[in-house]
Design brief:
Blueprint (H helix, E strand, L loop, with lengths): L1 H13 L6 H17 L21 H11 L1 H17 L7 H8 L6 H8 L7 H14 L8 H7 E5 L3 E5 L4 H19 L2 H17 L9 H5 L3 H10 L5 H7 L5 E5 L6 H18 L4 E4 L2 E2 L6 E2 L10 H5 L4 E2 L5 H4 L5 E2 L2 E4 L1 H18 L3
Helix pairs in contact: 1-2, 3-4, 3-5, 7-9, 10-13, 14-17
The structure holds 2'-deoxyguanosine-5'-triphosphate (DGT).
The site of 2'-deoxyguanosine-5'-triphosphate has 11 residues, from helix 7 and helix 9.
Pfam families: HD_assoc_2
Keywords: Hydrolase
GO molecular function: dGTPase activity
Length: about 375
Amino acid sequence: MHLATIAYDNVLKKHQVIFPPEQQDWFRQILRLIALTHDLGHPPFSHASEGVLPVGLEHEDFTEKVIKETIIGEYINEIGVIYTKKYGQEYNITPDLICDIYQGRVKDKNLIFLKKFMDSELDVDKMDYLLRDSLYCGVSYGKYDLDRLISSLTIYFQNGPRLAIDKGGMHVTEAFILARYFMFTQVYFHRTRRLYDLMLTNFLKEILPNGTYPDDINEFLSYNDNIVWELMVREKENSEWAQRIIHRDLISIVDESPPHSDDKDKKIYNMIGREIERECGKENIIIDSPSKLPHKIPTRVEVDDEKAIPIIRKISSLPTSLSDESEIIKNLTKPINIIRIYAKKDVYDKAKKIYEERQRDALGL
Ligand SMILES: Nc1nc2c(ncn2[C@H]2C[C@H](O)[C@@H](COP(=O)(O)OP(=O)(O)OP(=O)(O)O)O2)c(=O)[nH]1
């Protein structure tokens, strides 16, 4: 919320004539609420236990439930009342409005623009999580110059307002995109880190009624990180997965694909993985396939932000894609696609042997 506010204020300050003052204030409040609430629906340990959300529901659906079905909705309505008193009925703010924008159900181009601060190639969510995760994981990846990036943000118009970076922002944007790339390849998708997600998922599948979190929002909210830790400690004598997590008893990796495996690689790894599962027992093997789309290429426009050029002049400058100018960004367009096969100790040698034989067959050796 803090970063979204700075980014919004900064962009609007550069181009004062975009919205009338009351609309500018209203949009700002809406954006702050979206930023504050957008991740409320994450289950315990966030992405790590998404695999046990009820079928057909994503964490975004739980965010919507939290906003609409808990006291959070009442707080939002209270803010709405303040805004209607200040500016009139058309400036209401409701839980429905917040969810419609967040879930991409609005047609208004200005509201779509607002969402871009939270979900786009230049969103402050990424700006936040990269630096936060880098700090808490104690790694040097993920770093870039946040102040510079935010002050490079600007607007251009193409069928409504759009976020872009200005002419001085190219290198900081390169650093930002590389930061995301390294955090995914080196941290989020690290083989041991991913294994903890998988072991946690397996534990939760065993322990939760029906193997999933409940879809009732109040029951869902009764689970948090501490409760899950407690369950793990309580169940450690009964659950292999709880025991493994608590004692750091990891499962070794038989092999993994390159970070940008293509369809052919994926097919080979999957085929070999399934055979290993059949031969060694499904319960002894874990196959993981983390993937991430490449960073969407940001747009760059020629704006001299020092002078706060009015919007009319700014529109005349043509937007260009950063990939036209940056050799680094041009070459970071492949999705990350990794496939890994893990095997428990008792079957490890057998699994490795099958893997090596099949790899040789696949390569025609
Ligand atoms: N436990 C766990 N966390 C992950 C994984 N992948 C990403 N994360 C963490 C890293 C960040 O703190 C946060 C980013 O979440 P997402 O990738 O869902 O964000 P988003 O789709 O907005 O990112 P993007 O726009 O693609 O950069 O989640 C994963 O496989 N397991």
